[in-house]
């Protein structure tokens, strides 16, 4: 090529060269495997016969019909939904309360703030093991405070004030709220501290009480960040594997779809069915997101 | 009493209580973790309710590090984390610079790709990667795991770094160009020295992801004990009856401490980075 390039063309080429390592690794490790996962979901694939399952292999819907008719699939989907909605709502609500409480300076705020962040930055394996130990029916410290020990993580149903409650599921949800409220706290606090003081002061001058100021001055300015947080937490929690797997292994009525995906993949060695379940999970997630954006959308699009 | 003064008094009383409750709920479990790790298992069984051990011991740490092999696990985790950080930075610095400064074909679409990767469920990705690594015989090798971590962090780190690079004044770069810097030497001599805080935050983010990650470590490394990471090691040993809980608690402290130290050494940088790039988790 003897043609001289313009500076603009050189810039374009340089841009592509510099971005290419990023693109290559995301393509090779994320995009291509994703396409392959979709293909596997429509094939009869096991680790033993995987080399014979080619691109042009036999495509079938069998995995999907098999997975959907398996006992436990629908209940795990319901569990996933309950776990996600409750975990998301609780973590954001506690995060909001924490952000409001720590908004103004006070002696020791740095320490409290640091302490609040630890559950979120600590490794999930360590905190899950810590919870397991604390809730252990024999020597867990929480059970020494109770009159009667409760098997928080291994008991599917229990009675509380005469009502049947799913003990293990609630415990897992509590864990989720405890571990991820710092995430909401960080975002909401950052937003709170960026709010213009004048509005709040004007409301005080107009005689608004603290709850009125919260309801009519602060909340309207926080809705967008809360909407964004809801989407993020919903997406992450819906497909979360680590927390439930480590706490209960999916037992005691806490089986979520991602744990089933893992079990099909490793214990049953049924790659096709595992992939099919993962795809169903992803599709349900996308459907929920679309519904959400339809009803509440608009605000977070420009974030 | 008017509604206003009633509410003011109420919130003035409630606020310290809420703050105290938050502090206890978050700090107490970690205090308990440390206290359990320095006592003998016998003491825990006899007195499960006690918070302060009657006799302190560090044998638990010696046991977990040597007998249970946590030294090896820590070495593996360190290799994985350091390699992930190095390669993530190496890949995302030019990428972020390109997105921040250079007009190239597809620049707008790149954002969409990154957002998709960021929100993408790891569990879907786990299946084909598990199959692929089994076929290639890469299961049990740390290299495969490092590759996955890089791919998972790069989209976020590119985004974090891009935001920072955009704040570097363009005129400084132009001055460097006039002084004879090529594009790469401009990045190396001008942009990077100016972006040290962002580079730190990005590196720490990559470190945290690599050190804390569990699912892919479980899928790829579980068959080979020599290659376990600290997270995987603790999760695998937690099920066994032979190892006392207090010893495993020492293991959790060993697992948690590096992250907490790293986090508080750089808390300011990292929280800014986290809210800018929001850790996946």
UniProtKB/TrEMBL annotation, chain A:
Residues 77-292 form the ABC transmembrane type-1 domain. GO terms for cellular component: plasma membrane. One of its GO terms (biological process) is transmembrane transport. Keywords: Cell membrane, Membrane, Transmembrane, Transmembrane helix, Transport. Its main location: membrane. It is a multi-pass membrane protein. Gene3D superfamilies: MetI-like. The chain crosses the membrane at residues 12-39, 81-102, 114-131, 167-189, 222-239, 271-293. It is found in: Cell membrane. SUPFAM superfamilies: MetI-like. The keyword Transmembrane applies. Belongs to the binding-protein-dependent transport system permease family. This is Sugar ABC transporter permease. It comes from Nonomuraea turkmeniaca. The lineage of its organism: Bacteria, Bacillati, Actinomycetota, Actinomycetes, Streptosporangiales.
Automatic annotation (TrEMBL), chain B:
It comes from the Bacteria. It holds the Pfam family BPD_transp_1. GO terms for biological process: transmembrane transport. One of its GO terms (cellular component) is plasma membrane. The chain crosses the membrane at residues 12-34, 78-100, 112-136, 142-161, 198-221, 241-265. Gene3D superfamilies: MetI-like. Keywords: Cell membrane, Membrane, Transmembrane, Transmembrane helix, Transport. Belongs to the binding-protein-dependent transport system permease family. This is Carbohydrate ABC transporter permease. It comes from Nonomuraea turkmeniaca.
């Amino acid at each position: 090529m003897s043609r001289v390039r313009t500076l603009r063309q050189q810039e374009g080429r340089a841009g592509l060269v510099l971005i290419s390592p990023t693109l290559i690794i995301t393509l090779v490790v994320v995009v291509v495997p994703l396409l392959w996962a979709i293909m596997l979901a429509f094939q009869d694939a096991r680790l033993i016969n995987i080399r014979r399952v080619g691109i042009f292999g036999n495509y079938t819907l069998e995995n999907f019909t098999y997975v959907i008719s398996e006992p436990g699939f629908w209940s795990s989907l319901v569990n996933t939904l309950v776990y996600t909605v409750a975990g998301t709502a609780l973590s954001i609500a506690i995060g909001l309360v924490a952000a409001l409480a720590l908004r103004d300076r006070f002696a020791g705020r740095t320490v409290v703030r640091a302490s609040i962040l630890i559950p979120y930055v600590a490794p999930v394996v360590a905190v899950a093991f810590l919870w397991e130990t604390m809730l252990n029916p024999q020597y867990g410290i929480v059970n020494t405070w109770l009159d009667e020990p409760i098997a928080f993580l291994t008991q599917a149903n229990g009675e509380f004030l005469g009502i049947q409650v799913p003990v293990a599921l609630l415990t897992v949800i509590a864990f989720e709220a405890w571990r991820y409220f710092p995430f909401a706290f960080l975002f909401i606090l950052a937003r709170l501290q960026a709010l213009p003081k004048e509005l709040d002061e004007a409301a005080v001058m107009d005689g608004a009480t603290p709850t009125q100021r919260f309801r009519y001055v602060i909340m309207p300015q926080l809705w967008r960040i809360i909407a964004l947080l809801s989407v993020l937490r919903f997406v992450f929690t819906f497909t979360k594997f680590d927390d439930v797997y480590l706490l209960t292994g999916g037992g005691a009525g806490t089986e979520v779809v991602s744990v089933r995906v893992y079990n099909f993949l490793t214990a049953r060695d049924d790659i096709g069915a595992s992939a099919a379940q993962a795809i169903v999970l992803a599709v349900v997630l996308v459907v929920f997101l679309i519904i959400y954006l339809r009803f509440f959308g608009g605000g977070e699009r420009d974030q | 009493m008017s509604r206003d003064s009633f509410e003011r008094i109420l919130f003035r009383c409630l606020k310290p209580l809420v703050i105290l409750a938050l502090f206890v709920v978050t700090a107490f479990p970690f205090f308990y973790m440390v206290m359990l790790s320095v006592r003998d298992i016998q003491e825990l069984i006899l007195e499960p309710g006690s918070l302060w051990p009657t006799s302190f011991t560090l044998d638990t740490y010696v046991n977990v590090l040597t007998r249970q092999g946590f030294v090896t696990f820590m070495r593996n985790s360190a290799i994985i984390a350091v390699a992930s950080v190095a390669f993530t930075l190496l890949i995302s610095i030019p990428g972020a610079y390109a997105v921040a400064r250079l007009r190239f074909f597809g620049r707008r679409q790149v954002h969409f790709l990154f957002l998709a990767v960021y929100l993408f469920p790891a569990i879907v990705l786990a299946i084909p990667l598990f199959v692929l690594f089994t076929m290639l015989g890469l299961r049990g090798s740390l290299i495969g795991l490092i590759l996955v971590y890089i791919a998972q962090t790069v989209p976020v780190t590119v985004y974090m770094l891009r935001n920072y690079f955009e704040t570097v004044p363009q005129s400084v770069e132009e001055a460097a160009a006039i002084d004879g810097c090529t594009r790469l030497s401009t990045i190396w001599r001008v942009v990077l020295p100016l972006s040290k805080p962002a580079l730190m935050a990005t590196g720490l983010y990559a470190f945290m992801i690599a050190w804390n990650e569990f699912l892919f470590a479980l899928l790829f490394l579980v068959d080979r004990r020599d290659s376990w990471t600290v997270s995987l090691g603790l999760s695998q040993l937690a099920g066994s009856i032979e190892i006392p809980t207090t010893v495993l608690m020492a293991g959790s402290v060993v697992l948690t401490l590096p992250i907490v130290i790293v986090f508080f050494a750089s808390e300011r940088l990292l929280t800014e980075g986290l809210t800018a790039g929001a850790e996946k988790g």
